[in-house]
Design goal:
The structure holds two protein chains of two kinds. Chain A is mainly α. Helices cover 71% and strands 0% of the residues of chain A. In chain A, α4 (70-90) crosses α13. By secondary structure, chain B is of the alpha+beta class. The chains are: A mainly alpha, B alpha+beta. The interface between A and B is large, with 54 and 34 residues. Chain B: It comes from Leersia perrieri.
Chain lengths: 619, 122
C-alpha cells in the first residue's frame, strides 16, 4: 500500500518541503536522510551556517516590479533546497571547485566555464572558503524568498533580460573589465542554450552534474564580490537553474509521478487489475482478437475455431475431415466405391429386394446399406450397382454415385440408364469431358439412334457435335423423353441454360411424374439465376418424392443464392437430417450459418449435431 | 469463360450471371473489392488462367485486371472449387500453401465462399 500511496499521491511538490504531502518528495527526503528545510544544512559537514533574515535579501533585491508566478516559485523552491543539501552533503572541496568544473559531457559548458574562470581569476580564492556557503545558505534560508523575490522582480523568464540589464549596469559602473563582460555574455548564451534544451533525457540523467555546476557558478560570482551584480547574477544563475529545474527537477519529479507512475505503473496496474478482474484473461484476449477482425469471417472462424472454448477440436476435425475427404475424393474420382463401415444388412437373406423396397419408400440412406450388402454379395449385379448409384445421386452424393455406376457399367457396358446417370453425375461434378463421353456413349449404344453416331469410340467428343447428333435423334423421335433429357444435360454442359430448360420442359410434358426430371429443371433454372422458378420445380419434385435429399439441398442452394440464408438453413438441415453423409449440404449449411449471423450454431454444424440443428431450424 | 477446360470456369460463369441478381448486387455493396484469380489446372503457377472478379462493378471477366486488383490469388482448379464450395477453409488453404496471395491481406480475408453462387445438382 505504501508503494501505491507513493504512486498515487498528489503529483505536485508541496510548498512546505519536508512536510510535503507529496509522497515522492517524502520518498526523496527519506533517501537523502534529511529534510529540505534550509536549517538542516547546519548539520552538514564543513558548513557554518548563519541564518539571515528575509530582509537581507530584500535589501539585495531592490528591483521589484516584475510579477512572478507564486505558484511556480513554490514548486521550484523545494527542489532547489534539496539540491543545496545535496551539494553540501557531497562536501566538495571548494578549491577543486574553483579550479574547474566536473568533467561532464558538456564540453561547451566547460569551455564557457573556463573562460569565465579566467575572467574572474583575479579574485582571491580561498578567502572565501566558508563564505560561499554562508552566502549560499543565506539565500537558501531565504528559500521562501530569494528565488521568489527574484521572480517577482524579473518574472520567471526574466533572468535573461536581467542578465543583460546587469551587464549594462556593470558596464555603466565601469568597474567591470571587458573580459568579465564577455564571459558573462557567454555564460548567458550558455544558459540560454541549456534552457532551450528540453530533452528530458538530458535533463534527467545529467541533472546533478548540471546542478553542481550551476551552483558553483553562482558561488564563484559571489566570491568575486560582484556586490549588487552578484546577487542578481547569482539569481540569474539560480534562475537559469530554475528554468532548467522547471523543466527538470520539478517537472522531473512531476513528470515522474505523473507519467512514469500514473500513466505507467498505476495505469498499468489498473489495466492489469481491471482486465484481470473481468476474469478469464483468456476470454478477453479472444474478444480482442476477434474485435480486430470484426467483419472478417475468416478470422471469426479462426478465432472460433482455434481459440474458442472447446473449439480446438472442431478445427482439428475440420482439418482432418479435409484430409480424409480429399483422400476420399481421390478415391472416388478414381471410381473406387467406399462402403459403409457398419452394415446391418450384411447377411440379409435378400438385400436386393430390401434395397429396392427401401428406395421406393424413400429411405435412401437405409437403401444404400441394403444395396451395398447386395453388391458385396453379388459384385456383378449391374442392377444392384445401378440402383445404388441412383440412390447416392438422390442422396446428393455424386462421387459415390459415379463409383457405383462405374461398377454397374463394368457389369453391363451398354446400360443406357447407367450411361445417362454417369453423364449427369459428372456434369454435377463439373467434369465436362467425362460427362460428354458418357452421354456420347449413350447415343452410340442406343438401339434406335446408334446409327446416327459414328460407331468408333472417341475419347474426347466435341460438345457441339454431340449436341447436333442428339438434336437429330430428337427429330427422329420427338416423343422420346430420354433424348430431351440428355439434350438438357448437354446444354447444361455448354451452359446454354435456356435451351436446357426448354429440353427439360419438353421431357416433362412426356414424363410429368419423373421427380428427378423436375429436379433437373430446377437445378438448371437455379444455375441460370432463375432461383424463384427453380424453387417451384423443386417443390414439384418433392411433392412426388418427399425424401429426395438432392431436391432439399438444391432448395437450400436456391434460397442461399438469393441471399435468403435463414430459409436456406432450414432446407439444408432437412437435407442433412435425411442424409447425414451429405457433405456438400453440410458445407453449404455452414456457409449459410455464418452468413445469417448464426455463428452460435456453427459448432453444432461442425460436430454434425442434428438434434440441435433440427430443433433450432424446424421446417 | 468460354473455351476454358477448368471446372472453376463454370463456377465463374455462374458467378458472372449471379452478379446481375439482387444477391450479387448486394456483394458489390458489401465487399466492393477487385480480386484477380490465377487458376492453374494442376500446379500453381503453371498454365494459369486469369480471371477477375470485380466486386466494384459487379463483373466477372477473363484476363488480367487492368490496374491493380485489391488482392490476387493463385490456386489450382480443384483447390479453388474446394474453397468455393466450402470444402476447404480459405485460411487453412492459405496455411497449407494451397493459396498464394498478393495484395492487401485485408482484402484477401474478405474473399469468402459466399461471393460465389453454389452450383445446383441435376
Amino acid at each position: 500500500m505504501a508503494m501505491r500511496h507513493l504512486i498515487t499521491g498528489q503529483g505536485n511538490c508541496a510548498p512546505d518541503g519536508a512536510s510535503s504531502s507529496n509522497p515522492f518528495g517524502n520518498f526523496a527526503n527519506a533517501l537523502l536522510g534529511q529534510s529540505s528545510k534550509a536549517q538542516s544544512i547546519k548539520e552538514l559537514p564543513g558548513s557554518s551556517v548563519n541564518v539571515p533574515t528575509t530582509s537581507e535579501l530584500g535589501a539585495t533585491a531592490p528591483l521589484s516590479t516584475i510579477p512572478g508566478s507564486e505558484n511556480e516559485f513554490k514548486q521550484d523552491q523545494l527542489p532547489l533546497a534539496r539540491v543545496n543539501t545535496l551539494l553540501h552533503s557531497l562536501d566538495i572541496d571548494s578549491n577543486y571547485r574553483m579550479k574547474g568544473p566536473l568533467h561532464g559531457p558538456y564540453s561547451e559548458m566547460e569551455e564557457y566555464w573556463n573562460q569565465s574562470q579566467s575572467a574572474m581569476r583575479p579574485a582571491p580564492m580561498h578567502v572565501v572558503s566558508d563564505k560561499w556557503i554562508t552566502e549560499f545558505d543565506k539565500q537558501n534560508n531565504n528559500s521562501e524568498n530569494w528565488a521568489n523575490s527574484f521572480e517577482q522582480q524579473y518574472g520567471p523568464n526574466g533572468w535573461a533580460s536581467e542578465f543583460e540589464q546587469h551587464q549594462s549596469q556593470m558596464a555603466m559602473m565601469g568597474g567591470a573589465n571587458m573580459a568579465n563582460l564577455a564571459a558573462m555574455e557567454q555564460s548567458r548564451m550558455l544558459a540560454q542554450t541549456l534552457a532551450s534544451n528540453n530533452d528530458p533525457k538530458f535533463q534527467n540523467s545529467k541533472f546533478f552534474q548540471f546542478v553542481s555546476k550551476m551552483s558553483r557558478g553562482e558561488l564563484i560570482i559571489e566570491d568575486n564580490q560582484v556586490k549588487q551584480g552578484s546577487a542578481s547574477q547569482s539569481s540569474g544563475w539560480a534562475d537559469e537553474f530554475q528554468t532548467q529545474y522547471n523543466a527538470n527537477a520539478n517537472s522531473w519529479a512531476d513528470q515522474f509521478v505523473h507519467e512514469e507512475m500514473s500513466q505507467g505503473a498505476e495505469k498499468w496496474a489498473n489495466e492489469f487489475s481491471s482486465e484481470y478482474n473481468q476474469g478469464g484473461l483468456n476470454n478477453n484476449w479472444i474478444d480482442e482478437f476477434s474485435k480486430l477482425h470484426v467483419d472478417d469471417e475468416w478470422a471469426e472462424e479462426f478465432s472460433g475455431g482455434a481459440f474458442g472454448e472447446s473449439s480446438a477440436d472442431p478445427w482439428v476435425d475440420e482439418f482432418q475431415n479435409q484430409l480424409s475427404s480429399s483422400k476420399q475424393n481421390s478415391g472416388a474420382s478414381r471410381g473406387v466405391y467406399v462402403f459403409s463401415d457398419m452394415n446391418p444388412y450384411v447377411g440379409h437373406p435378400n438385400p436386393m429386394q430390401e434395397g429396392q423396397e427401401l428406395f421406393r419408400k424413400g429411405l435412401l440412406s437405409e437403401a444404400v446399406l441394403a444395396l451395398e450388402a447386395e453388391v458385396l454379395k453379388n459384385p456383378d449385379n449391374s442392377e444392384g450397382w445401378r440402383l445404388l448409384g441412383v440412390t447416392h445421386a438422390e442422396n446428393d452424393d455424386d462421387q459415390q454415385a459415379i463409383a457405383a455406376m462405374m461398377r454397374a457399367l463394368e457389369a453391363n457396358p451398354t446400360n443406357l440408364e447407367v450411361l445417362l446417370a454417369l453423364g449427369v453425375s459428372h456434369t454435377n461434378e463439373l467434369e465436362q469431358g467425362e460427362a460428354l463421353r458418357y452421354l456420347h456413349r449413350w447415343l452410340q449404344n442406343h438401339p434406335k439412334y446408334g446409327g446416327i453416331a459414328p460407331p468408333q469410340p472417341t475419347d474426347s467428343p466435341y460438345g457441339p457435335d454431340v449436341i447436333r447428333l442428339f438434336n437429330e435423334a430428337a427429330q427422329m423421335s420427338p416423343e422420346d423423353a430420354d433424348v430431351h433429357i440428355v439434350l438438357g444435360v448437354l446444354y447444361n454442359l455448354s451452359r446454354e441454360y435456356d435451351k436446357a430448360i426448354a429440353s427439360f420442359k419438353t421431357a416433362l410434358q412426356l414424363k410429368p411424374q419423373d421427380y428427378s426430371l423436375w429436379n433437373k429443371l430446377g437445378a438448371t433454372q437455379a444455375n441460370s439465376i432463375q432461383s424463384a422458378d427453380a424453387i417451384l420445380a423443386y417443390q414439384q419434385a418433392l411433392d412426388l418424392k418427399p425424401n429426395y435429399v438432392r431436391a432439399w439441398a438444391n432448395m437450400g442452394i436456391s434460397y442461399a443464392n438469393q441471399g435468403l440464408y435463414e430459409d436456406s438453413i432450414r432446407y439444408y438441415v432437412r437435407a442433412v437430417s435425411m442424409n447425414p453423409k451429405a457433405d456438400n449440404a453440410w458445407q453449404y449449411l455452414r456457409i449459410s450459418l455464418s452468413n445469417a449471423s448464426r455463428a452460435d450454431m456453427v459448432a453444432a454444424c461442425d460436430s454434425r449435431n442434428l438434434d440441435v440443428l433440427q430443433k433450432e431450424f424446424p421446417l | 469463360m468460354d473455351g476454358s477446360k477448368l471446372k472453376s470456369a463454370q463456377i465463374l460463369e455462374q458467378a458472372r450471371l449471379h452478379m446481375a441478381t439482387d444477391a450479387g448486387k448486394e456483394l458489390t455493396k458489401k465487399i466492393g473489392l477487385v480480386y484477380q484469380l490465377n487458376i492453374a489446372p494442376k500446379k500453381i503457377g503453371v498454365d494459369e488462367e486469369i480471371f477477375v472478379i470485380d466486386l466494384k462493378k459487379g463483373e466477372v471477366t477473363k484476363g488480367p485486371y487492368e490496374g491493380k486488383p485489391d488482392a490476387t490469388f493463385s490456386f489450382t482448379d480443384s483447390d479453388f472449387l474446394s474453397i468455393v464450395t466450402g470444402k476447404m477453409n480459405p485460411q487453412i488453404a492459405f496455411i497449407r500453401g494451397a493459396i498464394k496471395i498478393k495484395g492487401s491481406i485485408n482484402a484477401a480475408q474478405r474473399f469468402t465462399p459466399d461471393i460465389f453462387p453454389k452450383p445446383s445438382k441435376l
